[in-house]
Amino acid sequence: MDTAQRYRAFATREAHGHSAIYEELAGRVADDEELIALIDRLPVPKRQPNLLLATVRFLGGPVTGHRAFRSWVISHWDQVSATMRQRRTQTNEPGRCATLLPLLASLPQPLALIEVGASAGLCLYPDRFQYRYDDRPPLGPSASPVSLTCRTTGHMPLPERLPTVVWRAGVDLDPLDVRDADDMRWLECLVWPEQRDRLDRLRNAARIAQAEPPHLVRGDLNQVLPELVSRVPRGATPVVFHSAVLVYLPSEARSVFTETMRRMPGHWITNEGPHILPTVEARLPRPAPPDRAVFALALDEQPLAFTGPHGQWVDWF
Ligand SMILES: C[S@@+](CC[C@H](N)C(=O)[O-])C[C@H]1O[C@@H](n2cnc3c(N)ncnc32)[C@H](O)[C@@H]1O
């Protein structure tokens, strides 16, 4: 997929229905040869639409309409490209815990959670959030500042109680620190402009993490994971999980990770694009919808559901 196609796909498959302004801006970038030529000067992983759009907001540029956006990007390209090279797409979406929860609750308790590609680690607190599945009674602490709503289809096993988490840790190439103002602002810029609920959720989840910061290790998941798993306290079930991470790995690194995971004790929860893990893709009971972005949720490489990329829905198989 070339850069123009990438921006068009982002507009129609990801932003459509979720952010009218991002749909417009990404769609117009796709048709703009001058902007595409600038973006193509960056290494391929840095050409991501989300990264450009978040960068412009982070630097105080306008994301109100194409004309202002394009002239600002062109006149500030040195700054824009430097920030895109320096930062990464690290959208940390605690809403994804709503799709992970049925699996976490089904495993032998208590749990030791290890998230790879954890960003700021906000998905490491599934036991601190409240959950509302469809019109069922809420689950979890009523005083939680984070309330996650999730639509379900199929026969999702509704958890009766929250998991018991006795240990939590994460690894990231560049962990973000919820106590650092610049890192928080970057996280906020990664939330799409119209999504006020997601922004509130991010800030509220960050309050939980600020009160009890997660143990996050800087490094590549393939390098760091075995040592982290070896530190899981006795008696706890190790659960390695990740969402929206393996897409950033070259396929060889994905294979190394898969082999490592097969040797690890405990369980492995993946919530990634349906074509990212070959074994999960091969076992899907039906093809993923072609017209919108979805994730495939799997436990130990056994697919169990399609999920909304931000945790907004679960379609259980
Ligand atoms: C889109 S974010 C998702 C964050 C989090 N998993 C969530 O669902 O909210 C992807 C994260 O993976 C991290 N990442 C990408 N490649 C990695 C690698 N090889 N090792 C460790 N972390 C990596 C990025 O730095 C980024 O923070």
UniProtKB/TrEMBL annotation:
* InterPro entries the record matches: UCP012608
Query: One matching Pfam family, short form?
Result: DUF2332
Write the protein's name.
Answer: DUF2332 domain-containing protein
Species of origin = Streptomyces rubradiris (Streptomyces achromogenes subsp. rubradiris)
